[in-house]
Amino acid sequence: MKDFLLKDALKNNYAVGAFNFSTVEVLKAIIAAAESQNSPIIAQVSESAISFMGEEYLKDIIKSARKQCKVPISFHLDHGKSYESAVKAIDMGCDSVMIDCSMLPYEDNVNITSKVVEYAHSKGVFVEAELGSLAGTEDDLTVEEKDSCYTSPQQAKEFVERTKVDSLAIAIGTKHGAYKYSGEAKLRFDILEQIQNLLPDTPLVLHGASGVDSRDVQRLLELGVNIQGAKGIPEEFLRRASKMHICKINGDTDVRMSYMIGILSNIENNNKSIDYRGYLGAGMQEVAKLVSHKIEVYNSANKAN
C-alpha cells in the first residue's frame, strides 16, 4: 500500500485538509493552494459529485492531477453509502474511501465496514468509517438533529479493532452544512481526548468542520444569496483539534461559499462579458485563498516532505 498521509499527521500533530470538489476548476484551485503552502492535501468527491462529473471523466482527471501535483495528494470518496459505491470509487482510482453506515444498527455498520476494508486493503486502498452521527445536510446526506449522537469512546475502540479500519470519523459536536449552530458553538473535546487515549495509533477525522466566516456570509447576502443565519466552526476549535488526534478535517461548505463569492463578484463587476473563464477564474482564486488559510489553521504547511 502507498503511504497513508494521515499516519504522518498523527505522528507530527497536524491535520490534512480534505476539501470536496465537483468541478476540475475547484480541484485545480485546491491543488494550487497546497503547492503554494508545500502541504499534503486530500481532494474528495461525494457520490453526487461523481455522478455530476461522470466516472470516466473523473478517472482521467484523477490520473492527470496526480501526475502533475507537486505535493502529496490523496483522492478520497466522501460518505460512500454502500459497499458497491466504495468498490466503484476504488476501481476509479481513489486512494481512500469512506464507508458511512453510521445511521445503520451498530452490527450492520461493523459488517459492511469490514467487508469494504477487506476489498480496499486487497487493492492497496485505505478506509475511513464513521461512528456516531452528525446533524445537518451535505449534498444528498441529511441527518435530523434528533437522530444525531456523539461517538462512544469504548464503542469506537471496539469498532476499530473489529473492522481493522484505517481512520475513524467521530461525532463530537460538528454539523454538516452552513447552519451548524443557532447559539454558542461547542465541541466535546473531552470525548475526543477519551477516544485518542483508547486509540493512540488511529487517525481521527472531523466532518462538518467548515468555518462559515461571517464576512463571507455578509458578502454572499450582498450578492443576493439567501444564507442568512449561517454559522460554522470557530477556527480556534479546529486549531486545537489538529494538535490532538484529528488528522483529517473536512471542508465543503466553505469551498462552495468561496467559489460563489468569486464568481458572483466578478459577474457583478463585469456583467457585459460572455467570457465565463473570467468568472470561473475569480472563483478559483477565492477557493485557493480559502484553502491556503485552512492549511495554516491545520498546521500542515511545509509538511509535504
Brief rundown of the structure:
An 8-stranded parallel barrel has the order 1-2-3-4-5-8-9-10, surrounded by 9 helices. The protein has a two-stranded antiparallel sheet with strand order 6-7. The chain contains 12 helices and 10 strands.
Query: Into which percent range does the helicity of residues fall?
Result: 40-55%
CATH architecture of the domain at 5-133 and 144-207 and 234-252: Alpha-Beta Barrel
CATH topology grouping of the domain at 5-133 and 144-207 and 234-252? TIM Barrel
Class inferred from helices and paired strands? alpha/beta
What is the strand content? Answer: 15-25%
Order of helices and strands: HEHEHHEHEHEEEHEHEHHEHH
CATH superfamily of the domain at 5-133 and 144-207 and 234-252: Aldolase class I
H/I helix tally: 12
Would you kindly provide a written description of the structure presented here, covering whatever features stand out?
The protein has 305 residues and is an alpha/beta fold. It has a domain at 5-133 and 144-207 and 234-252: Aldolase class I (TIM Barrel, Alpha-Beta Barrel), CATH 3.20.20. Helix content is 48%, strand content 15%. It has twelve helices and ten strands. The strands form two sheets. The protein has an eight-stranded parallel beta barrel with strand order 1-2-3-4-5-8-9-10, surrounded by nine helices. The protein has a two-stranded antiparallel sheet with strand order 6-7. β6 (136-138) and β7 (141-143) form a beta hairpin.
